[in-house]
Amino acid sequence: MKSGSKNASDNDTRTRVDKWLWAARFYKTRSLAKDAIDSGHVHCDGQRVKVSREVFVDMTLTIRQGHDEKIIVVDALSSVRGPAPVAQLLYHETPESIAKRDDLREQRKAQNLAHPDHKPNKKERRQIHRFQRGFGE
Prior knowledge:
Blueprint: H1 4-10, E1 15-16, H2 17-23, H3 30-38, E2 42-44, E3 47-48, E4 54-55, E5 60-65, E6 68-74, H4 84-87, E7 91-93, H5 95-112, H6 122-136
Antiparallel strand pairs: 1-4, 2-3, 2-5, 5-6, 6-7
């Protein structure tokens, strides 16, 4: 038996976390997945993971991408990047994580409502200047 054939048979039970994140389409390339892991954006049970950490079914991972933090549970393993519908079958996000992300999204939307939709025109600028001069005296 060749030593190379061992990896093919173990492929269904053992997968590195960087390969799995890439196969599950959380990151576009394996190097981006590696960088995210090295930066501390991926945790397992509250602990930072290393790139070579193996992923198992029913493992819970916390992944931070931008403003969003997702808590996912691994449902299946794959080290091959496939189409998006297949990648979505590799994991599911916890209901608490979905609710928390929705709440944070709504808060960010509410904060952005204070910003005007357009640049003030000449008349509106004059009104703003008159208003500001009234408070300066």
